[in-house]
Amino acid sequence: MDKKKLAADLIPLVGGKENIKSVIHCMTRLRFQLFDMKKADISKIEQLDGVMGVKEVGAQTQVIIGPSVAEVYKEVTAITGDLKATNDVKQDEEKQKFSAKLLDMISGIFAPVIPLITGAGMIKAILTILVVFGLSNTSNEYYILNFIADSGFYFFPVVLAFSSATKFGCNPYLAAMIGGVLIHPNWIALVSAGETVTFFGLPVKLFSYASSILPTILTVWFMSFVEKFAEKVSPNMVKAILKPLITMAVTAIVSLIVLAPLGAYIGGILSGIIAFLDKNIPILVPTIVGAIQPFLIFFGMHLAIFPPLQTLQLAEMGYETVCGPGFLAAVLATSGATIGFALRTKDKNAKELAFSTGFTAFCGVTEPAVYGIIVKYKQIIPAVMLGGVSGGLFAGIFHLKRYALATPGVPALPTFIGEDPNNIFIAIATVCIAFIVSLVSSYLLTGTKKKASDIENTYVSEPNTIYFPLNGNVIPLKQVPDETFSTGVLGSGFAIEPSNNNVYAPFDGTIIQTMDSKHAIGIESNDGIEVLIHVGIDTVDMNGLGFELNCKEGDKVKLGQLLLTFDPKAIETAGHPTVTVVVVTNSDSYNSIDIEKTGDINAMDKVLTVK
User: Fold this and answer.
1) Best CA proximity match to 11, nearest among 80, 67, 89, 88
2) Which residue is catalytic, options 25, 26, 170, 576?
């Protein structure tokens, strides 16, 4: 993948630099916020080399790149430069549902801080391993590593304030300072003392805001309005002084008296709900999360739902169960299902992709497997869900806990080492159950797909006869929106508007040609008829996306044997007609080619005889 070229090709397709309000990235996605989402050419973006898919979630246009997303992001920002400087125009945005705005806001705030959470969590995990192997928890080494890891969570309000300010469009450095107010040593001293505190007669509620989320977000949201007000009322002569003064003073005071306590109160309610579920129904959350996590990944919603909840629980209880156990099961189920598919499929390209993306999922990054294999080969989706539910249910029954935050996967297993020495063994068992159940299920489902849809041996191939290769409605070649076919340059034949997605052998014969893009097959009958079956128009541009070959050049095939499957929605999304063309490419060898049936037809009905 040429990352510089990808960035250069991508920016015009999202409407150009002037249409980009902001762009951030998470583990695998570029997350664009565009002034006008309609200007993004989704079908062309999906065809770019290096793009695995595109999703529009809330106000975000998410371009799935994979593990190299950070490098592509650097190339994108090198081209766009300072977006705030170039985008002074106001967004002419459509009214969005409150839920869409909320999801976009939360994911936009948390996506940039995920590396901090992951890094601090993994240091904690490594420290735990060192203790297991003999490092004293009273040593200087332990002390230093521990406060390095803790700093990521203790000073989280400062980092979260900066990220929130970027999302809300206010000064991130002033916001970081306001975040610092919530964890200032003098404030901590007031909280520790527990004595009544007032500010000009107004009561000030004492809460500890270290590792807080809602108090910080509410405060910065309020600050975005205060800063606009300060900008408006401050005279130009003293604006450089008065604007930050008003912003900092008003925001900090209102935060300590009203907003931060309100956020802490709401956070306490959420923590109480999580604690209730954790105590009374521990199997519920990991089982549900294990089942639906791949779908949340697919729609890009995982960052909007789980980071706030898991951070709340970890700060409150010292461990979390709302995300880690279920995600662990789902991630390994995704890996197992993908590798199970790789072990069974006969498609060489799909096998290579499945093995590589399955290993990536094994390490915790599932987007390549979800978009490259699971969504494309839908028959294994039940295997992913079954593995996720099995592993999640086991984790819930034995109350699996995660003691630090990191991307779930086998390398992150140390985050499950904690006070309970058996917890890590429960985590390992969860991994094994989810992986094995999904692998076996996927292997069986991959093996039965062809058998279930294959109708070979049902019909006997007659000499000089071609049978319909799929269900649909027959149309004349001249109606095909491609001159190469409509003018008969390639030979006589017919076209079909398909009503299903399976293409079968139209006679007994030999596969003489396949394409890397999997959209077309050349086949020669035992009595010499050469036929080209071409699915869709201009579908070579899709580079195999939405197609699965079940044959290769040189294969001997029987009438009714499944040759390929395709995804009509993928073809339509890419902007191509789904019409399938069947042409006798050696038509000049015959005196006549007679079509025997038109209109709606079924696969294996007799269609052509040649003489």
Assistant:
1) 80
2) 26
| CB contact at 8 A, 340 and 383 | yes
> Among 25, 302, 519, 534, which one carries the catalytic annotation?
534
User: What is the domain range of residue 64?
Assistant: 3-94
Residues 289 and 369 in one domain: yes
Domain count across the chain: 4
What are the tens digits of pLDDT across the range 154-204? Answer: 888 999 999 999 888 899 999 999 999 999 999 999 999 988 899 999 999
Q: How far apart are CA 324 and CA 304, in angstroms?
A: 15
Residue found by looking up tokens 């109606």 in the block: 479
Contacts of 376 (CB under 8 A, 6+ apart): 545, 546, 548, 567
170 is catalytic: no
Same-domain check for residues 288 and 267? no
Mean pLDDT of 18-27: 82
Instruction: Report phi then psi at 170, rounded to 5.
Output: -120, 180
CA geometry: angle at 545 spanning 65 and 518, to 5°?
A: 140
Question: Which helix or strand (DSSP H or E) is residue 253 part of?
Answer: helix 239-254
Closest CA to 399 of 435, 429, 356: 429
Beta carbons of 50 and 77 less than 8 angstroms apart: no
Residues 440 and 486 in one domain: no
Model confidence, pTM: 0.56
| Domain boundary pick from 393, 425, 450 | 450
Q: Is residue 146 part of a domain?
A: no
The 10s digit of each residue's pLDDT in 301-318 is 666 567 777 877 777 788
Residue 534 a catalytic site member: yes
